[in-house]
Specification:
- With 305 residues, the chain is of the alpha+beta class.
- The protein folds into two domains: 10-152, OB fold (Dihydrolipoamide Acetyltransferase, E2P) (Beta Barrel), CATH 2.40.50; 179-297, 60s Ribosomal Protein L30, Chain: A (2-Layer Sandwich).
- The chain has helices at 10-16, 25-31, 138-178, 201-215, 234-254, 281-287; strands at 61-69, 72-76, 82-86, 92-96, 105-106, 117-125, 128-137, 182-191, 220-226, 267-268, 289-297.
- The strands form two sheets. A seven-stranded mixed β-sheet has the order 3-2-1-6-7-4-5.
- The N and C termini lie far apart (89 Å).
């Protein structure tokens, strides 16, 4: 018996990348859809032998690698027929086409990537079909490798972003939890224009006045929290609130001479905790603010509120 089809195009190769990798031999047989009458689908059971030189020839299988698991792969033809083929130490894997200098070069089994068009020569074994030779084009290997590496990089970037967000969340929880250890002695707000984080002359005066008030208190610390109105997306507003808080911290330390060790870590809260109605221009103006809170530890605040 012989299974052959024309080599699928790039669009079919990309579509096949969505196929789910199978978990094992049984899954390889079960996950593939049953073939229509007259079409053939083979399965592989057990570990293919290393020496396949004496085994009888099997059918040729052309198609796309639609699943890959250890010593076996599933090749799906253009008509949808799925064939399981074992990969042995005796399997010859070759590529041509000049990719990175490859010219009819022998490759390892790790080159058999999902979505890669292949032409497979097989032999018959008691556990199913085993590939005696797998041929692929260098340009197809390059495309599949780029897709795999790009996807892996994207997943890594997303994982790193998730980790950073988790760390920031834990830090914020810690800071908010620490608020219970302090008495809030005073709060001053400075305000910003839409989309801006520069300080007005009045804001500069108010900040230094608040720093002087805090400096007159024993053991006072400052907690700076930035906010935005509801205009703009969440990510942009988070960035904007952090920039506003950072600008206030810098001014307090550089112009008002507030000591860095007496500053708690600043926080950006985006559009959370509005003090006014965001549906009006006046309300939004009040919400575009940075709050400077004077805190004194409860443990040393004698007679504190």
């Amino acid at each position: 018996m012989k299974i052959q089809c024309n080599r699928p195009g790039a669009l079919f190769a990309l579509a096949s990348l969505a196929a789910t990798a199978l978990a094992g031999p049984a899954a390889l047989a079960q996950d593939a859809p049953p073939p229509p009458p007259g079409e053939v689908m083979a399965t592989v059971i057990g570990t293919p032998p290393a020496d396949i030189s004496g085994l009888p020839a099997g059918p040729d299988v052309d198609g796309i690698i639609s699943a890959r698991n250890n010593d076996r792969m599933q090749v799906t033809a253009a008509d949808g027929t799925a064939t399981a083929v074992g990969i042995s130490a005796g399997t010859e894997i070759k590529a041509s086409g000049g990719f990175l200098g490859i010219s009819h070069s022998k490759l390892g089994a790790d080159s058999l990537l999902n979505g890669l068009p292949v032409a497979v020569k097989t032999v018959k074994w008691s556990g199913g079909l085993v590939a005696s030779r797998v041929e692929l084009k260098g340009k197809d290997l390059k495309t599949a490798a780029m897709i795999r590496n790009g996807t892996s990089q994207r997943f890594a970037e997303q994982g790193a972003a998730i980790d950073r967000n988790a760390a920031a969340t834990e830090a914020l929880r810690g800071r908010l939890g620490d608020i219970d250890k302090y008495n809030v002695k005073d709060t001053a707000n400075v305000y910003f224009d839409t989309g801006k984080w520069n300080l007005s002359s009045k804001a500069q005066e108010d900040l230094c006045a608040e720093a002087a008030k805090a400096d007159a208190m024993d053991n006072a610390l400052l907690l700076v929290v930035g906010y935005t109105d509801s205009v703009g997306g969440q990510d942009y507003n988070q960035m904007l609130s952090e920039k506003r808080a950072g600008r206030v911290v810098n001014y307090l330390q550089q112009a008002c001479h507030w000591k860095p060790y007496r500053m708690l870590t600043p926080t950006g809260m985006a559009e959370a905790d509005p003090t006014a109605d965001n549906s009006t221009a006046q309300g939004r103006a009040q919400n575009r603010r940075v709050s400077v809170n004077i805190l004194v530890s409860k443990s040393v605040d004698v007679g504190g509120s």
